[in-house]
Amino acid sequence: MIAALTTGQQTVTATGPVPLTTGLDISGITGDCTVHIRVQGLTAVTGKAAAAITLEDSVNAFAAAVPVAEAQAISVVDPVAEIHIIFRKYQLPSCRFGVAGALLRVNVVSLSGVTPSLTLDAWLEE
Questions:
Q1: Whole domain around residue 114: which residue ranges?
Q2: Pairwise CA distance, residues 65 & 17, whole Å
Q3: CATH code for position 61
Q4: pLDDT tens for residues 44-55?
Q5: Residue 113, phi-psi category: left (phi > 0), alpha (psi -120 to 50), beta (remainder)
Q6: Which long-range contacts (CB under 8 A, 24 or more apart) does 67-71 make?
Q7: For 8-25, what is each residue's pLDDT tens digit?
Q8: Overall number of domains in the chain
């Protein structure tokens, strides 16, 4: 099964949760899974573009989100040469898979460069 962590491909120009901001329900996941983040574009008008992307989980609708993994992307990404970041469940030991009410989302915590733009999508594969 594949479940979207973002609402399709998203382009963001500021920090914050990437739409599907309500999060993906991970309360029913008890077996192995893989989380994919695909950076399809990272640019800045001037300067070096960089982004820090976190996976966050929550059991209270993100009133108190908990970062469970972070990935970095730096410089210009050519759409032909995507950055594909993969986290297996065992690499996310603090993530609350299988816990009642648990949700998972993608959050851009930093985005640098002059007028930066980050295009990405993310999904969970069981």
A1: 2-125
A2: 11
A3: 2.60.120
A4: 888 888 999 999
A5: left
A6: 67/107, 67/109, 68/92, 68/94, 68/95, 68/104, 69/35, 69/95, 70/109, 71/37
A7: 999 999 999 999 889 999
A8: 1
